Task: inverse folding
């Protein structure tokens, strides 16, 4: 029932925020991964708080740990912003992921126990924790109808990852499902 409600909410919000979602798609470089964006780029844009999705952004779907090539990026980001200004907001807050972040990136908070994206609850919780306004946050996500909608609803800027991490060899059915979802959710907003 919760999934059905979330799908209906997504469809209503997609219609309401279609222009904002179209702007995200049209203004995002193709084939962009997180490791291609130096953390200083966010700082130069006036961002004070980084909010990272996990699946697709930090690692392929279902992976327990961030991709090895992203570990230096995460350390640089934490050094630049401070660990208290870096958050992970995932619809799958697995305990193994939270434990890994607690062990390797102390101070970085993994937001759990909130409604899943596209509900804006996670972003609103981060604003409450940090005391920062919406425009001081940057959500980095690979999905329009989850993270993109949450960002639009909460009025938080978004960096759209157009080349997410994928491991077809390990989880072909799951990865093909999410690849199809990403393709379909971009279609109404592509020019």
Result:
């Amino acid at each position: 029932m919760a999934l059905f409600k979330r799908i209906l909410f997504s469809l209503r919000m997609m219609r309401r925020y279609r222009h904002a979602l179209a702007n995200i798609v049209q203004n995002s470089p193709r084939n962009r991964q997180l490791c291609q964006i130096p953390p200083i780029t966010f700082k130069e844009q006036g961002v004070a708080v980084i909010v990272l999705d996990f699946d697709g952004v930090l690692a392929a779907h279902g992976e327990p740990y961030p991709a090895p090539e992203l570990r230096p990026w995460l350390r640089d980001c934490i050094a630049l912003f401070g660990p208290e200004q870096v958050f992970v907001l995932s619809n799958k807050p697995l305990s193994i992921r939270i434990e890994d972040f607690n062990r390797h990136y102390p101070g970085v908070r993994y937001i759990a126990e909130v409604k899943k994206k596209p509900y804006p609850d996670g972003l609103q919780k981060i604003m409450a924790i940090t005391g920062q306004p919406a425009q001081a946050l940057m959500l980095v996500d690979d999905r329009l109808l989850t993270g993109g909608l949450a960002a639009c609803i909460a009025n938080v800027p978004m960096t759209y990852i157009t080349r997410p991490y994928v491991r077809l060899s390990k989880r072909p059915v799951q990865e093909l499902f999410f690849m199809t979802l990403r393709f379909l959710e971009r279609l109404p907003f592509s020019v």
User: Anything to note?
Assistant: The beta strands are 49-52, 86-89, 109-111, 137-141, 158-160. The radius of gyration is 15 Å. The domain at 17-189 is CATH 3.40.50.1000 (Rossmann fold). The chain has a mean pLDDT of 95.
